[in-house]
Specification:
The protein is an alpha/beta fold. It folds into seven domains: 88 residues, 3-Layer(aba) Sandwich (Rossmann fold); 93 residues, 4-hydroxy-3-methylbut-2-enyl diphosphate reductase, catalytic domain (Cobalt-precorrin-4 Transmethylase, domain 1, 3-Layer(aba) Sandwich); 100 residues, 4-hydroxy-3-methylbut-2-enyl diphosphate reductase, catalytic domain (Cobalt-precorrin-4 Transmethylase, domain 1); 64 residues, OB fold (Dihydrolipoamide Acetyltransferase, E2P) (Beta Barrel); 85 residues, OB fold (Dihydrolipoamide Acetyltransferase, E2P); 77 residues, Nucleic acid-binding proteins (OB fold (Dihydrolipoamide Acetyltransferase, E2P)), CATH 2.40.50; 101 residues, OB fold (Dihydrolipoamide Acetyltransferase, E2P) (Beta Barrel), CATH 2.40.50.140. It is 26% helix and 28% strand. It contains 17 helices and 32 strands. It is elongated, with a radius of gyration of 48 Å. Bound molecules: iron/sulfur cluster. Iron/sulfur cluster (SF4) binds next to helix 1, helix 4 and helix 8.
Length: 685
C-alpha cells in the first residue's frame, strides 16, 4: 500500500514564485533571479533552458534584466541596491511579515534573535532587516552570554524549522533572559507538512521524502520521517529510488519546492514496486485529485487582492480561481481588501471551470447563501428559534434577513397584535420560527406570533399555578373602559373596577389612570374556571376618612369651606374628600329661611365639631356654637330653654357608600346629582 501525503509538493509561497516567473517568460523581458528560484535543480534547469538566469548578487546582474526576488526574500540592503531597477518581488507574504516584525522591533531597541540556519537565504534576508545584527541560534544548547541575557529580546523563527525545535530553543533562552518577546513565525504549510509526514511515517515500513538536497524543509521532513521509520530515503527524482526488496506500507511526502511532476514520477515508479498491485492513477489521485467541477466547495488560499477581484490558489489545481468583488460579500461598501488579505484561507464555491481559457470562476456569496439555506432548513426541522432583522416591508408582510437568507413574515404573523403600519417594523430585530418552507421555490415563511403566543401561554400557566387572593402584583394598564381598567399582571389581564380606582367618586377611569401606567395591585377575587380576575388598587391608608379620624375630635374648631347647599343645611369641606354638615339651625343664632340667606358657596367659615360618627362617616358642625350668647339672652335662655338642636340627628357623609339621611321636620332633599352609570360586575373577561 502506498500513502501519498496531501501536503506534498509546492507550498503557497513557492507556487506563487514559480507561477510568477513562468508568467513573465512569455514577455519580452530578460529575467534574472537573485539566487536559485527554489531549491529544486530540475526546476532551475528548466528555467535556465527558458532563459531565466540565476545570479548570486545584484552587482552581477546586467542592467537590462528584470530582477526577480524569490520567495525566501532579501534584506533591506538588497532593496537599496536594486533602487531604480525593474524588480518582480515574489517574496512569500509570510516571510515579508517576519521582515516587518524584525524591522519594527529593531527600531524600538530590541535585540533580534532568529532561530534557524544562519546560512539559509531566508535567514540571511531576515537578518538584513535589522542591519545584520541578529543573534542566530540553531542549537538547543546554545550558551547565552551575560550581555545577551540583559537585553530585551525579540525572537522569530525561520519559517521552515521544526516547531518542537523552536520551542526547545525558546525555553532555553527564557531560562537565562529576563525579557523575551516571542513570535512563532513558523509557516502553517510547513507545520501541516511536518505533521502529515509524522503521521504517515509512523504507519509505514518505508518512507520516501522527495525534494532538493539543498532544501531545508525537505531535510526536516526527512529527519521527522526517519525518527518514526528507519527505512527513510531522501531523493530528488524517481531515479534516486532504492533498488530494494518490496515493502508492504510505503509513505511518500515531498518538500515545498518539489514540483508535482516529480512526485508523480516517483509514485508511478513505486506503484510498480509494491507487493499488492495497485492502480497508479488511484494512487496519484491521493495527491493530485485536483480536478474541479462546477458546484465544488473547496478551501483556497488568497494569493492576490485586487480592487475588483481576489485571486485564489486552489491548492494544487493548475489554475488560480477568480473571485469577483461582488461575489465576495453582500456589502457593496466593502472593498476586497477590507474582507481578505494575502495568505488567508477562504472557502469558495466553484461557479464555472473553463479549461480552454484556464479560468475558474468562484463565488463566496453563493456559498454563504447555500450554508444559510441549509441552516434555515435545519431550523425548520428542529423548530429552532431564529433571529432576524426586518429589512423591508412588502405587500402582505415583511422580510427578515438571517445570515444572508430572506424570510417572508406575513403581516398577521409579524407581531402578537395587529400592526397597521408594517414599515414601523423595519430595522427591528425579531425572533421567529420557520413555519413553512418551499424547497423548489426557495421560499421560506416565518412567524413571530407563534413564539409570542407560546410565551404567553407559558406565562399564563405559570400565573395560574401561583395565583391566589391577596397576592400582590405590579401591573401595566392595557386598556380603559367606562367600568374600570384592564391591567396586565404578567401574561394575564385583571380588572380594576372603577370603584377600586379612587377613594373619590369618579365618572371615568381616565380621571385616575391611563394606558401604560404601572400600578401596584392585588387579587381581590379570582375564578380559575372562567379565568376572571378582579383586582384591588385602593390602599386603606389613603382613605381620607381614616386620615380624618386621626385628626378631628368633638369640640374641635375647624376651618372649612362651604361646598354645597341643601334645604336642611350646608355642606362644608373640612379636608379633601371629608365634608361635614352644618344644619340650618346651626348656621346662625337666629331662625333663617334657607342656608343661602347667610352662607355662600366657596365661603370659608369656622365651625365647631359637635358630633362624629366614623362608622357611618358623618360629621356634624355648628357655626352657631361659636357665636357668643348675649348676656340678656343667656338669662332669658335660663328662663326659657332653647329648642332642642335637631342637627344632632342630621348628619351627612361625602363617602359615596354612605346614604344621606333626611332631616327631621324638613322636606326630603332632592337628588343632588344625576345617577351615575351603573358599573358591571367587578371581574374581567
Ligand atoms: S514554506 Fe511557507 S513561508 Fe516558505 S515559501 Fe512556502 S508558504 Fe511561504
Amino acid at each position: 500500500m502506498i500513502k501519498v501525503a496531501k501536503t506534498a509538493g509546492f507550498c503557497y509561497g513557492v507556487k506563487r514564485a514559480v507561477d510568477g516567473v513562468y508568467k513573465e517568460i512569455d514577455s519580452e523581458k530578460k529575467i534574472a533571479t537573485l539566487g536559485h528560484l527554489i531549491h529544486n535543480p530540475q526546476v532551475i534547469d528548466d528555467l535556465e533552458g527558458k532563459g531565466v538566469i540565476s545570479y548570486d548578487s545584484v552587482s552581477e546582474i546586467p542592467k537590462d534584466y528584470t530582477v526577480v526576488i524569490r520567495a525566501h526574500g532579501v534584506g533591506k540592503n538588497i532593496y537599496d541596491e536594486l533602487e531604480g531597477r525593474e524588480v518582480i518581488d515574489l517574496t512569500c507574504p509570510f516571510v515579508s511579515k517576519i521582515h516587518r516584525i524584525v524591522s519594527e522591533h529593531h527600531d524600538k531597541g530590541y535585540q533580534i534573535v532568529i532561530v534557524g540556519d544562519k546560512n539559509h537565504p531566508e535567514v540571511i534576508g531576515i537578518n538584513g532587516w535589522c542591519g545584520g545584527e541578529a543573534v542566530i541560534i540553531n542549537d538547543v544548547n546554545y550558551k547565552i552570554d551575560e550581555n545577551l541575557a540583559e537585553k530585551d529580546l525579540c525572537i522569530v523563527a525561520q519559517t521552515t524549522i521544526n516547531r518542537e525545535f523552536f520551542g526547545e530553543i525558546v525555553q532555553n533562552i527564557k531560562k537565562t533572559c529576563k525579557s523575551t518577546l516571542v513570535f512563532d513565525t513558523i509557516c502553517s504549510a510547513t507545520k501541516d507538512r511536518q505533521k502529515e509526514a509524522d503521521e504517515i511515517s509512523r504507519n509505514s515500513d518505508m518512507m520516501i521524502v522527495i525534494g532538493g538536497k539543498e532544501s531545508s524543509n525537505t531535510r526536516k521532513l526527512f529527519e521527522i520521517s526517519k525518527r518514526n521509520c528507519p527505512v527513510t530515503y531522501h531523493i530528488e527524482t524517481f531515479e534516486d529510488l532504492p533498488q530494494e526488496k518490496t515493502y508492504n506500507k510505503i509513505g511518500i511526502t515531498a518538500g515545498a519546492s518539489t514540483p508535482g511532476s516529480i512526485i508523480e514520477e516517483v509514485v508511478k515508479a513505486m506503484s510498480e514496486n509494491v507487493k499488492n498491485e495497485e492502480n497508479f492513477a488511484e494512487l496519484f489521485a491521493q495527491y493530485e485529485s485536483k480536478t474541479l467541477n462546477n458546484g465544488d466547495i473547496i478551501d483556497g488560499t488568497v494569493v492576490e487582492v485586487r480592487n475588483n477581484e481576489v485571486i485564489v490558489d486552489l491548492g494544487g489545481f493548475k489554475y488560480n480561481g477568480q473571485l469577483a468583488a461582488d461575489q465576495l460579500t453582500d456589502d457593496p461598501s466593502l472593498k476586497p481588501s477590507d474582507v481578505v488579505k494575502e495568505g488567508d484561507t477562504i472557502k469558495v464555491y466553484v461557479v464555472g471551470v473553463n479549461d480552454g481559457e484556464g479560468k475558474v470562476v468562484l463565488s463566496r456569496k453563493k456559498l454563504v447563501a447555500m450554508e444559510s439555506w441549509n441552516k434555515i432548513k435545519a431550523a425548520y426541522e428542529s423548530e429552532e428559534i431564529l433571529e432576524g432583522k426586518i429589512v423591508k416591508a412588502v405587500k402582505g408582510g415583511v422580510i427578515a434577513l438571517t445570515d444572508g437568507s430572506q424570510v417572508f413574515i406575513p403581516a398577521r404573523q409579524a407581531s402578537g397584535r395587529f400592526v397597521q403600519d408594517l414599515q414601523s417594523l423595519v430595522g427591528t430585530t425579531v425572533n421567529y420560527k420557520i413555519i413553512e418552507i418551499d424547497e423548489r421555490r426557495r421560499r421560506v415563511i416565518g412567524s413571530v406570533r407563534v413564539i409570542l403566543e407560546a410565551e404567553r401561554k407559558e406565562r399564563e400557566e405559570k400565573f395560574w399555578a401561583d395565583a391566589e387572593v391577596g397576592k400582590k402584583y405590579q401591573g401595566t394598564v392595557k386598556s380603559l373602559t367606562s367600568f374600570g381598567a384592564f391591567v396586565d399582571i404578567g401574561g394575564v389581564d385583571g380588572l380594576v373596577h372603577i370603584s377600586e380606582l379612587s377613594w373619590n367618586k369618579i365618572k371615568h377611569p381616565s380621571e385616575v389612570v391611563k394606558e401604560g401606567d404601572v400600578l401596584d395591585v392585588y387579587i381581590k377575587d379570582i375564578n380559575a374556571e372562567t379565568k376572571k380576575i378582579s383586582l384591588g388598587f385602593k390602599k386603606i391608608e389613603d382613605n381620607p376618612w381614616t386620615i380624618a379620624q386621626s385628626k378631628i375630635n368633638v369640640g374641635d374648631v375647624v376651618k372649612c369651606k362651604i361646598v354645597r347647599m341643601m334645604p336642611f343645611g350646608a355642606f362644608a369641606e373640612i379636608m379633601p374628600n371629608v365634608d361635614g354638615l352644618i344644619h340650618i339651625s346651626q348656621i346662625a343664632d337666629r331662625r333663617i329661611g334657607k342656608p343661602e340667606d347667610v352662607l355662600t358657596i366657596g365661603e370659608e367659615v369656622e365651625a365647631k365639631v359637635t358630633d362624629l360618627n366614623w362608622d357611618e362617616k358623618k360629621i356634624s358642625l355648628s357655626i352657631r356654637a361659636l357665636i357668643p350668647v348675649p348676656e340678656k339672652e343667656e338669662e332669658a335662655e335660663e328662663e326659657a330653654p332653647a329648642e332642642p338642636q335637631k342637627a344632632e340627628t342630621l348628619v351627612y357623609s361625602t363617602d359615596p357608600d354612605v346614604e344621606v339621611e333626611e332631616a327631621i321636620e324638613i322636606e326630603p332633599a332632592e337628588e343632588e346629582e344625576a345617577p351615575v352609570e351603573e358599573a358591571p360586575a367587578e371581574d374581567a373577561e
